[in-house]
Every structure is written in structure tokens, then in C-alpha cells.
Amino acid sequence: MSILISIKEQFNDFIYKFTVLEDLVIVGVSSLKIKDIAKALISEGIRFVHLTALDFLQEKNYLELNYFFFSLEEKINIILKSEIDPSKDSVASLSDIIPGIVWAERECKDLFGINFQGHPDPRRLVLPDDWPDSIYPLRKEFSYNSKPPGKLETSVELKKPSEGRTVIPLGPFYPSLEEPAYFRLIVEGEEIVDFDYRGFYVHRGIEKLAESAMNYQQIPFLAERICGICGFVHSTAYCQAVEKAGHIEIPARAKYIRSMFLELERIHSHLLWVGLAAHIIGFDTLFMQAWRIREPVMYLCEIITGNRKTYGINIVGGVTIDVLSQHLKEIEETTKEIEKEVRQLREIILDDDVIKLRFKNVGILSEEECRKFFVGGPVARAAGIKIDMRRNFPYAAYSELDFNIALNKEGDIWARTIVRLEEILIAINILRQIIKKMPEGPTSVKFSKIEPWKEAISYVEAPRGQLFHYVMTGPEGRPYRWSVRAPSYQNYQALSVLLKGGSIADAPLIIASIDPCFSCTERYETIDIKNKTFKVYSASELSRCLKVK
Question: Fewest Cβ atoms closer than 10 Å to its Cβ: which of 189, 230, 307, 479?
């Protein structure tokens, strides 16, 4: 709190709000001083999390920027708020002091129409290329179910290679990528010297739908569909945010059940990644073995919830199911066998010279670069950064559980692999404690109406890293604002460092090493070898080519 007290004293004339809650400090400040305060926070080692906006144009005639930070040492969250008139005001970009904020600023421009002075890459991030310029979909005036007419003429802004350099398009459909994404590699010979990324082709508008047409208890089932592998982390993070805002204390048994499924999800997610990494380098025997070991975890989830992946058990106030004693026994027996096989799998990987050649000293991200982009999860821990939200900001039952944090210092693909394998074994140990300590009692509580205009932040340590959900409660039985920042959102931005200097052959493996989540897409790029030109096809052009009416 010392740095915040110092900021309050130094910038008192520009601060219009200073509220201290249990683990949250809210500072309202003039946009003229946002950059100075952010610089002071970063210099003290306080970590940037996310940036989003809220629309109060109809009620108060301004948009509100919200910059989120947290302090690991003091275990407090900080929100810097600033009121913006988008018709007149622009805000200084913080990208020179927080490189990891670049995407968030681009997103605020796309979805809210806020301009950032001095931004290094002001291109669109989320919106499709044919989206009308003057329509901002997360403003309240825009209806969630409307579809504006597309612009007739669209242009795709992509980085152009300088003289002597070549473009290699990777994706959006590529054999070694488990989901579609478009990476534009700029190379000199076999070496990658720069790259460009285009994603968000099919932005599902989940936040908009939740804020417009759903109630508090419907949203967990939507949140769980944000990720195709680790959806339970999202429904948990959302429920925790609403529970915190509404001062809802859930039963201890519900906390343990949530922790149990979070760890089962971590095991099957990491095993999925190990298999995909093996597949990328052509080691399909290892790929099949990793997925064979994973399958009993999916079976456990299915016998308890009825679903292999999308469990549908989280609600605000707890969970909808109970876990029977025979379920706990089966988890204990199954994870004992999985532990044995994961140890064998780890030995195979550690002793394989080909894996070492492909993984060691490839895709290196140093501790300094990790801190610059504020990456999390195995990517950060593989570079020596001891950050794990289960320990730093305990949630669910984690404050009552004892576990280690897997760390490495090399920062390469090999280190990320070792960290993930170790985390599988740690997750199994956590499950043993959960089984032993599982308390008796109810699994959910009822609650009355949630008071509007309350704010809360929730974290979950997802398999890919730090997951962040923010909720501001609303007057209509639903969030006024719900903002989600998935771990891959930050980790993606570090690819600008990871890929540079690498070889074309290593690019799929380097990209996969951050365990990314992609969105679906409908564009591709073609290269005319004879004329040495390239073209990106739009959705309408693809439709004509495919003769789709």
C-alpha cells in the first residue's frame, strides 16, 4: 500500500476517487496522469493484468477506461479508472512502458472507439476487416443481435517484408496447429526475422451476449464454452467474481469440488499438450501414449458429471452436483495409475536425443522478456518466475492445500515441457489431499438479489496460465460489464520474441509451446510464385470461389 499512498499524495489534484476494499484499491484519475501513475506502479514491480472499458455514455456521457494491476507481495488488486469523452479525448498509449498492453489498447479502440496516442500498431485486432468504421459493438447503444452491413471495399493491413526478405504464411489451416490461426512469418533464408498475427476472425461476442440477454445463473454455462479444452476454469472464475461482488460465501464442499475438477482439467490439458508437441515433431507413438494416458481422466469427468469436458456444474453460489464416495475412490485409484504412467512418459522424454535436439535452446523467452509481456503459467515458470494464482491469490480450496510450484530457468521449449510434466504430478498430489480433506455439507447456497454497481476481480490458475475475470454488477439481474482475459491473450504477444531468430521448421513447435487457444477463421493467403505476389482472400471472395450463395 505504500506505493499507492505515495501516488495519492503526489497526484492528489488529479485523483477524483480513492477507494480501499478488502483486496482491491480503486483509483479514479485524470487521463492526463494515467501514464505517470502506471509508470510508478511498474517501477515498483507491480504487475499489469488487463485493460478494458465500460460504457456510461447514456447515463453520464463518458466511457471509463479500467487498467488492472496487482501486487504479488501485498496481495492486492489495483484498478486505475479514467473517464473519457471519445468524441474529444484520446489517451496516451502505455505500450512503451508496458509492451504487453498493445493488444488490449487495440481491442478498446475496436470495441469502444477509444484512440491511443503513440500506439505502435493501431490496426484492428478483434473486428473483421469489413466491419463499419463508426460502429463499436461493446457500447450499450449497439444491440447484441444486430448485424451491420459490411463495407463494400475492404483492405487487409499486413506487415510487408523489406527488400530481400520473404513471406511464409503459416495457417490458418495447418497440419501441426490444433486450431486455426494465421501467422505471417517474415524470413531471411531459413531464419525468422519478424512475424505478423491475425486472429479473432470469428469473435463470438460472449461478453456482449452476457451483458445484454442473460442472467447471473445462465452465464456460467456460456463461460464454460469460452475454451474448448479448459472451460471449467472460466465458469469458476466468473462465478467467483460474482460471488465476491455479491458477498456470497459458498460452502466448503463446493470449494473442494471446484478445486478437484480444476486439477483434473489441468491433468488432461497438459497431457493433451504433450501429445500434440510429440505429433509436431513426428513422434506419433509418444503422441498416442500421452492421449491414451489422458483418456481415463476424461472418463472420470464423464462418470461424475455426465460430460467428458463441458461439465455444466458451476453456478453462482456453488456447484449443482455432489461427489459420491465411490467417485472419490475411483479418482484415487485412477490417478495412482496415471502417476505411474506419467513418470514413465517423463523418462522417455528425458532420455530421447531427438526431443532434446528439437526442444532445447529453441523458442527461448528470458525472465526479463516474460516480465515485459506479463506472460503467465508454464511459460513464465519455465523462465524462473514464481507466479501461480493458486498460491498468490488463493481461491476455491487452495488455501487449505499444500503443493509445490514447478520451476525452471532455461526459458526454452524443453523447460516448458518439464514444467508441464511436473505440474501433472503436482495436480495428482493435490487431488489426493482433496480426497482426504473433502468436507461434508451442502454444495450450494441460495442468495437474494445482488446489489448493482459492485466490482470484483477473480483469478484462476488455468493450465495455460493466469486467467482473469472482471465483473461489475448491474441493475437488471446480470453483469453491467463482464471482461475476460484468457492466459493466451498475454502469451501470444510474446511470440514476437519467441519466433525471431528461429528457423522456419521450428515455428510450429515454438507457437505450440505456449499452448495457445485459437479462434476459428475463414481467410487464407495465397502466393503466386511466378509473379512473386501474395493475396489474402476475404469471406465474400471465398464464397464466390466456392459458389456459395
Answer: 189
Vertex 168, ends 163 and 174: CA angle to 5°? 170
- Tell me how crowded residue 181 is: count the other CB atoms within 10 A of its CB: 24
The pLDDT-based confidence of 179 (bands split at 50, 70, 90) is low
Dmax over CA atoms of the chain, in Å, equals 72
Question: pLDDT tens across 293-313, in order?
Answer: 999 999 999 999 999 989 999
Spatial CA neighbour of 457 closest among 481, 476, 439, 422: 481
**How many angstroms separate the CA atoms of 137 and 143, rounded?**
8
User: Which pLDDT tens digit goes with each residue over 109-136?
Assistant: 999 999 999 999 999 898 888 888 889 9
Task: Answer for the pair 309, 231: CB distance below 8 angstroms, yes or no.
Answer: yes
Q: Give phi and psi for 269, each to the nearest 5.
A: -70, -45
Residue 545 reports pLDDT greater than 60: no
Task: Identify residue 298 by its one-letter amino acid code.
Answer: M
CA dist list (Å): 212 to 149, 208, 217, 449, 475: 21, 6, 14, 18, 12
- Half-sphere exposure of 246 toward its Cβ, with a 13 Å CA cutoff? 26
Report residue 446: phi and psi, to 5°: -90, 155
* Alpha carbons within 13 A on the beta-carbon side of 448: 1
Closest to 268 measured CA to CA, from 288, 296, 287: 296
489 close to 99: Cβ distance less than 8 angstroms: no
Q: Is the preceding peptide bond at 172 cis, omega within 30 degrees of 0?
A: yes
Residue whose entry in the numeric block shows the C-alpha cell 510474446: 494
pLDDT at residue 349, as a whole number: 96
173 Cβ contact list (under 8 Å, min separation 6)? 180, 524
Instruction: Say yes or no to pLDDT of 73 above 60.
Output: yes
Residue whose C-alpha is closest to residue 495's, from 518, 468, 514: 514
The answer to whether residue 540 scores a pLDDT higher than 60 is no
| Phi, psi (deg, nearest 5) at residue 31 | -60, -20
pTM of the model: 0.92
